[in-house]
Amino acid sequence: MRSKVQLASAIALAATVLTALFGAQGSGAAATTPIPVAAKSNTPMAYVSTPVVQSLPTDGNAATDNQADDAVTSDHSADADSLAQLVAMQPSEGSVDSQMRCLAGAIYFEARGETLEGQLAVGRVIINRSESGRFPASYCGVVYQPGQFSFVQGSRMPSIREKSDDWREALAIARIAVQESWKSEAQGALYFHAARVSPKWRLTKIAQVDDHIFYR
To answer: End-to-end alpha-carbon separation of the chain, Å?
Structure first.
């Protein structure tokens, strides 16, 4: 009887030792597992990663705006049956920046009194030059380049009668030329001279529009 009690005690003691041993090992494994910070709060635990932010090109929105402007310009061009009608659709008020003033000023002094097509052709030459890589890269740079336009004297443009119909017309033509909302007869021209002179240039003649002959 005594041996049976001793055996039972030995078995109970062994069971107690085994239980304590396995319990300690389990606590150690849990301690080595990182505990997410969220587990310390009452909020649901989630795996959070740092978001990857993709930078858009700096001109991404500007390109969209320009496309929108082009769409508006195209709509105006589609609605106009003539260049005169398109000129009449241009805004008559608003600020004029220095580059647009140089372009419109050149049209005003070089082709004032000519047809709208003649004024547009002059404007396109200035724009073409600024984009060609062979001349200054701005409208003002093209207009004020030494020895190019006779109305420029001492690096200055004469005063403009800004209340006149001629100036409003020149501004409208300048906007149309920049927007390319009406095709010019002198498309692609880089040079022109008055029809009354014959400089014998070795250039490709494109067209004569009013009192000017245009070349590329």
So the answer is: 125
State pTM to two decimals. 0.64
Helical ranges in 33-155 per DSSP H = 60-79, 83-88, 98-111, 116-132, 139-143
Looking at residue 86, the DSSP 8-state letter turns out to be H
DSSP state of 4: H
- In tens, the pLDDT along 35-67 reads 233 333 332 222 222 222 222 233 333 333 333
CA distances from 194 to 148, 159, 206, 211, 215 (A): 13, 22, 14, 6, 12
Tens-digit pLDDT profile for residues 137-146: 999 999 999 9
Instruction: For residues 110 and 126, give the distance between their C-alpha atoms in angstroms, rounded to a whole number.
Output: 11
User: What pLDDT digit, counting tens, does each position of 176-190 carry?
Assistant: 999 999 999 999 999
**Cα–Cα nearest to 153, from 105, 116, 197:** 105
